[in-house]
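Continuing the batch. This is chain 6 of the set; chains 1 through 5 are on the previous pages. Same settings as before, nothing changed between runs. Recording input and output for traceability.
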Amino acid sequence: YAVEHFKIKYPETPLKIYSENVQQIQQRLLNGEIDIAFIEGFESNQGFNTEVLSEYSLFLVCSSHNEFVTKERINRDDLLNLPFLLREKGSTLRDCFDELTHELKVDISPVLESINTEVLIKAAKAGMGITVLPEPLAIQYLNDGIFKHLYIEGHKMSTVNYVVTLKGKAGNRRYIDIIDYFKKAEGQYASFNQIKV
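Output for chain 6:
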């Protein structure tokens, strides 16, 4: 939605998109390679302006046909014996999961670690283990019955998404418009994508 609307309004403006972890995107901002970043779980410092874009729950999901967990509510002890498919350290999904396991005093060694969420989704579909997905990605798989949602008793994970720019860098109408398009896209997600399960 956001990119499509921006291209319609500004067809002559080049648009280059990177999908990288927080540290890589932060470095691109500092190097002047990009003007605006939409970042999940960004910890700001004095060199950046940040604005909250949205907040999502993070879900633990696994194949509906898995053979390693039969209950939806799991506890600390269960975590020690379950196979996990996780993003690399430094990614927001991994950092949120690691915060939770640290709080529970559990050390998890994933059976699969990847920089690519799609790899983890495919592995979870194949029944290899449990992965962490943001709500917008998880919902369709849950609604289609491909994944089931696992709940850790007494604990929830969430992440905040931010618009990030360099401090002192003047924005223009295009900046304002693309940020508005992303906000509208986030608002549409919240209105229309409710979990049915």
